[in-house]
Specification:
The chain is an all-alpha fold and about 80 residues long. The chain has 5 helices and no strands. It is elongated, with a radius of gyration of 14 Å.
């Protein structure tokens, strides 16, 4: 079974602030083992799901820092 590129990416991009977002939980939602899920995700994105989540979070924080008056502490939450 192959995972599709768009659904996991879309899910991560819309749920990046969820503290429970992890390789394990994403694999569980896809009904795959964590190792297999991570390997397949990395084939599609050249990054592990965790690395992709971190990149999305950083991108969002950078955008908020430059376009809002929120403090760093507020954005970090």
């Amino acid at each position: 079974m192959q995972i599709q590129q768009k659904p996991p990416v879309s899910y991560i991009e819309s749920h990046y602030s969820d503290p429970d977002l992890s390789n394990e939980n994403l694999a569980r939602m896809a009904m795959l083992s964590t190792c297999y899920y991570v390997r397949k995700f990395k084939e599609f994105r050249s990054a592990t799901p965790h690395q992709f989540i971190q990149a999305v979070r950083i991108r969002s924080a950078k955008q908020k820092l430059s376009t809002t008056s929120l403090s760093i502490e507020e954005i970090a939450e």
